[in-house]
Amino acid sequence: MNFGLAEEQTLFQDSLGAYLREQAGLDRVRRIANGEEDAQALWRELVEFGLGGLSVPQEQGGLGLTPMDAAVAAECLGHQVTPSPFLGSAVMAPLALVLAGGQENRLQALATGELRIGVALGEAIGARADAGVAAVGSRLHGKALYALDYGADAYLVADANRRLHLVQADAIGHQPLTTVDKTRATGELILDNAPAILLTDNPQHLRQVIDAGRVMLAADTLGAAQAMLDQAVAYAKERQQFNRPIGAFQAVKHLCAEMAANLEPCRALVWYAAHALAQIPDEAHLLACHAKAHLAEVGTFVARTATEVHGGMGFTDLLGLHYWFKRIGFNRQALGAPELVREEASRAQKLAA
């Protein structure tokens, strides 16, 4: 039995990683984060590479790949801290449309990059039945904070009864929100009698979409944390102190070893959670919760420790380490902080009411 990536997935990982290093390096990330370049140009390039149709069925012009392949892509994007609407338009939205059925035209548009769909599901996570977005007929009322992939053409919105809707961006009020992570566009949706298309009223479908998003965020954090670890080790080998590389000192060795020891088991956890999304549906929710919560904690530890290894240089824009640091921090909170996600996991195991 093969417990690692298939040969095709390894080739995909290598080719995407090389493409991102060449086309979306730190200089370009910095320009996009500072508003000097439009992130949509980069997404169009990634769509041409195939990321837009990664999760779209082949019948609708996509690649029809698995959640495991999507997790590999998310890890690469996190490793290169690439700004993109991958989470919404390439993973969560295609899954929601497939579950809804009858959405062939929209799926084709996602695959070609003609349509971008953001995600506003935060209010559906841990919300009471009388909170969040209210649905009256085919109209939505309320606000959805921290919509992911802001600037999209349409948004997935969940109401208080955990029904999943699609709303057009030009039919609602919206405004950008500022977060610590400048590689991710977030916004606030203002739903004042907003027309909506009901995709599905099955709460299980909403949970599947959120679980897929959580696994992708965990994979993104895995890639970002690995990049910070790699940079810390390289710096420890080069930085001289007392005529010796600082990596020769036991204290720095221990920091790097502890980061590696904490991060390496996470790879198997993320891979298994991604595999379970399609192959082990009975375990998928629990594993998505575990992966999201654990990577949030480990990623935070690696981000802090890698910055400490760099000393004062770790806080400078010259190195750009803060882009990975802030991305990991954003991933920690998006689609549920670890405390909330662990509470969900305990309920799934019937350990809590």
Written account of the structure:
There is one protein chain. With 353 residues, the chain is an alpha+beta fold. The chain folds into three domains: 7-112, Butyryl-Coa Dehydrogenase, subunit A, domain 1 (Orthogonal Bundle); 117-201, Beta Barrel (Butyryl-CoA Dehydrogenase, subunit A, domain 2), CATH 2.40.110.10; 204-348, Butyryl-CoA Dehydrogenase, subunit A, domain 3. 54% of the residues lie in helices and 14% in strands. It contains eleven helices and ten strands. The chain has helices spanning 7-23, 26-33, 39-49, 67-79, 86-100, 104-112, 203-238, 250-279, 281-309, 321-333, 338-348; strands at 117-120, 134-136, 139-148, 154-158, 164-168, 173-177, 186-195, 197-200, 240-241, 244-245. The strands form three sheets. A four-stranded mixed beta sheet has the order 1-4-5-8. It has a four-stranded antiparallel beta sheet with strand order 2-3-7-6, with no helix packed on it. Helix 5 (86-100) runs antiparallel to helix 7, helix 9 runs antiparallel to helix 10 (321-333) and helix 9 packs antiparallel against helix 11 (338-348). The radius of gyration is 20 Å and the shape is globular. The model has no long low-confidence stretch (mean pLDDT 91).
- What would you call the shape? globular
**C-alpha Rg, in Å?**
20 Å
Spatial order of strands in the largest sheet? 1-4-5-8
Order of helices and strands: HHHHHHEEEEEEEEHEEHHHH
Largest sheet: 4 strands, mixed
Mean pLDDT over the full residue set: 91
